[in-house]
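User: Is it possible to get a 3D structure for a protein together with its bound compound? The compound here is S-adenosylmethionine. I've pasted both below.
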Amino acid sequence: MQEPVTAPTLDLIDNFPAFDKAGAHLKEIIIEHGYKMIADIGGGANPMLDDEFIANNNIHYSLIDISRSELLKANSLYNKIEADATSNNDTFHKQIAGMKFDLIFSHMFLEHINDPVQAHRNFYSALNPGGRCVHYYASPNNLPLTLNRLLPEKISACLVRIAQPARDLEGSRGKFKAVYKMCGAPNRALSAVFEEIGYTISQHTGYIGHTYYERFKPVAMLERRLRKIIHKLQLPLTSNCLLILEKRA
Ligand SMILES: C[S@@+](CC[C@H](N)C(=O)[O-])C[C@H]1O[C@@H](n2cnc3c(N)ncnc32)[C@H](O)[C@@H]1O
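Assistant: Yes, that's possible. Here is the predicted structure of the complex:
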């Protein structure tokens, strides 16, 4: 029997359409559906869409972030809104001045918030009918991220510096405390939460494998082999997830 399209799925990390692939992935969705009103949640320092695409496609791009200092890092082309995505619905509505969006997306944001259900509710109410939410986020079901979650912030930040020395922690790629609520591997219980809010789930995929061992070549090679076995066995050891939710037209 064929699985319904909304079934949670597992895939390999090479197919995760985030980081340098996120812009192209988002553009495809925007062009396909003719979306114009777009909100990037927690996008402060690193907006995912480039200036040229925004201008050429007549897009209204709002950057919504809790941090004024992060918003200040982005250029002035964007409509910058200082707001807490987890505020109660009335407050969030006021903070975004009652705006409605065709596409609300977030990139490496969901793992940082304490009340994801409230955030998903707020996004639902701020979506136009026929609109979508697209969330790319980290999932903690692997060894390095389990350590990141369990260790005190100072020590985990120190380990990130060792594993990823090129990362500019004070600049545009600052490290924010991750709490990973509702960021486990996609499953039916999570689907039920999104459906209860009102969403239709277009895609919920967990990605297996990571690059945390890149500086330690033999370990990285071992991890690459292991991830294929984990994927074959369909074990929910996910490092990242993609979640696409739709508000019915
Ligand atoms: C890890 S950064 C991701 C930045 C960017 N999207 C990227 O991928 O490089 C997380 C961002 O979420 C913002 N943030 C954290 N909690 C938030 C909240 N409750 N409401 C809105 N933004 C929040 C932080 O200020 C930060 O800019």
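DSSP finds nine helices and eight strands in the chain. The CA atoms of residues 143 and 237 lie 9 Å apart.
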